[in-house]
Design brief:
Elements (H helix, E strand, L loop, with lengths): L1 E14 L2 E6 L2 E7 L6 H13 L3 E2 L5 E3 L1 H4 L2 E6 L21 H18 L3 E3 L7 E15 L4
Parallel strand pairs: 3-6, 6-7
Antiparallel strand pairs: 1-2, 1-3, 1-8, 4-5
Helix pairs in contact: 1-3
């Protein structure tokens, strides 16, 4: 499982011209699921994400978590995080999770996040989305379950 976590001043996702998810300060997270991922892996990833201390305190140190700042989450499914570009110029997505199972895990991640964070917004699995954000810093972290 891969999370691309972006520290954002704001984020929003639009589908067919309609805003379907929007947050103020917090994390915009792109979520990639592989065929070997499980609910236990999702639990570890979500718990790690919400506890990351990447927001600045009054002294400018990255010392505060999402809860400390009252931040929100905007969770976006993105199978392209498992693109394999080793051979040729057309990416292969064979390592990305099978869509039905990947969607189940995406929904599971959203439900888990809602138990840990009061503001959780989302995109739509498999939809063409436009994701907008103001990356603060910029500050972006890649969480990969293979390295946790």
């Amino acid at each position: 499982m891969r999370f691309v976590i972006q520290n954002a001043k704001y984020g929003r996702v639009t589908i067919d011209g309609k805003v379907v998810g929007e947050i103020g300060r917090g994390f915009v997270v792109l979520i990639g699921v592989s065929n070997t991922d499980t609910e236990a892996i999702a639990d570890r990833m979500v718990e790690k994400m919400v506890k990351l201390r990447v927001f600045q305190d009054e002294n400018g140190k990255t010392n505060l978590s999402l809860a400390d700042i009252g931040g929100g989450l905007l969770l976006i499914s993105q199978c392209t995080l498992y693109a394999n570009c080793k051979k040729g110029n057309r990416p292969s997505f064979i390592e990305a999770g099978e869509p039905t199972r990947a969607n189940e895990l995406y929904e599971y991640i959203i439900a888990k996040a809602k138990t840990l964070c009061p503001t959780v917004e989302r995109g739509e699995f498999g939809a063409m989305m436009q994701v907008e954000l103001c990356n603060d810093g910029p500050f972006t972290i890649l969480l990969d379950s293979d390295t946790l």
